[in-house]
Amino acid sequence: MTAVGNVLDLFAGPGGWSQGLNALGMREVGIEIHPAVCQTRAAAGHATIRADVAAYLTTPLRGKVSGLIGSPPCQTFSAAGLRAGTDDLPQCHQALDDLARGKDTRATLRDVCTDKRSLLVVEPLRYALDLRPEWVALEEVPAVLPVFEHTAHLLTAAGYSTWTGVLNAADFGLAQTRRRAFLVASRTRPALPPDPTHADGGTPDDLFGTGLPPWRTMGDVLGCPPAVVHTRGNHTTGGSRFPTTGPSWAITGRARSWLLKVGNRPAATRRRLDQPAPTLLFAKAHQDVSWIDQDGTPIRRLAVEEAAVLQGFPAHYPWAGSRTKQFEQIGNAVPAPLATAVLRPLVPAALEVAA
User: Fold this and answer.
1) In sequence order, what are the residues at sequence separation of 6 or more whose Cβ sits closer than 8 angstroms to the Cβ of residue 209?
2) b vs e for 15-36, b when ≥16 Cβ sit within 10 Å of the residue's Cβ?
3) pTM of the model
4) How many domains does the structure of the chain reveal?
5) Are the CB atoms for 336 and 16 separated by under 8 Å?
6) Which stretches of the chain drop beneath a pLDDT of 70?
7) How far apart are CA 2 and CA 153, in angstroms?
8) 34 and 23 both lie in a single domain
9) Quick check: 176 and 313 in contact, CB under 8 A?
């Protein structure tokens, strides 16, 4: 690796950040431990080191990394999990302060955590302080924002400009109202949030330029990818099948009234085709993300290809592993359009146009 233009992706996942970087003419090397995820990355052409981020030594990488990306596992902080990370916040904050003082107390603090995975959220600071990249971009569920704010404070003391906040992916062209916390930092330019490209309901033109288009809907994106749409017959069989290689109006008749249901409770979120999807949370609940009609009658489960498109991936991205593992990867990934928007202000202009 050369020292200029190298990007290291911690907890790399299936390639959301990778796809976002590709749109800027850049590539990265990811560190990822899970076999199915590594297989997906390999099939998609993303360079990967199969290793444990927490155990990986930073010394060989010094002077070789210009950008650092990190999306620590969110299960311990997620609303879809048991929120054990909330109980472990004191240990996370202690580990951050100790790392900033040059002390590595991760092993000791990990032993007293409710969930040992909680402490993974401090790993990006360890890498950033050891490697001193030009810029850093981190993503997590909103519950981790206090940890990101603490990390930003310590990066500011180390000479970085920083910004933290929560972004809605629908504001950046994704057909999903997914909210995630971000931290961006730079040693060479002001760290700023990305400018939205879309808005709820759109915004009008004014003297300063063209207004923003409205949020994209599930119908906008699912009507066009080369997948197969099933019009409704009975609950499990019948109906028609046709490839959606045409425009979104190919979804006709009763299919226009489909709703996407996320969850298995009476109050589960439901969204119409003419709305963005809600946040897609899969893990073991992927069977609870399904299409229903207006009466609440099940039609079929959400297809892997549809979930991928709603998360900003190509319809036929090469997911590896079981169906459950594929949905887990999709639900945990950073949407590529959002990744591109976050990274664009950080990446040097000369690299944006590099082939």
Assistant:
1) none
2) bbbbbbbbebebbbbbbbbbeb
3) 0.87
4) 2
5) yes
6) 1-5, 78-84, 224-256, 283-287, 349-355
7) 29
8) yes
9) no
